[in-house]
Amino acid sequence: MRSLVLLLALMALSGCMKVSDMGEGVRYQMSDAGLLDHSDTTRTLSVRLQPDSFIFIGQGAFVPPGKGPVPQQNAVAEEAFKSFVEYFPLVRRAKAPLGLEDAIAEARSVGAHYVLYTRFARTDDRIGNGDEWYDEQAVDRLGWDTGVVQMMLIETSTRYLIDTARIKSRGGLLTFHDNTPQDLLAAPMREYARSLLGMSR
After folding, report:
1. How do the domains of the chain map onto residue ranges?
2. Contact between 56 and 107 (Cβ < 8 Å)
3. Which of 62, 87, 90, 161 could form a disulfide with 54 if both were Cys (CB 3.0 to 4.6 A apart)?
């Protein structure tokens, strides 16, 4: 009798929900419980851009406070570029960190409509493999990485601030091996790019 009830319940659920939705729900619950990578994005506005918008991506030279090794110089801009190029056909990235004024000037020189200016505000690259343990050898440094990224979306011609966003991310128990704070950025960057087009998950 119990197995029949379970079977009927599963059939009812499968009729109401797509498999992809069920998978996304499981992934969200596991990330919320700390088993998988988790991120939280906060935006000031819910502005949308045209799909043919030309976006120039730059990163400040600011060195984030935190523990562990400093992230690669242009890591945030590189991750943003990889995500945005999936959704916006006109995207260019600065080759190295640069100041905001320089980013706007370079964006104007290539004809970009918007500047996405990024930086790590904080990072904590904890021990996640044997090499990192050899370097630090501190039990309290074992664990998953965390990071906070800040972004400004600026209209190039008017210098008007279109949007600001903050991404807070942390690794998961099952995914922390060999990870760094920049490895946590791919999913939230894709989500932010999609949100600028008004696309749901």
Report:
1. 1-33, 38-196
2. yes
3. 90
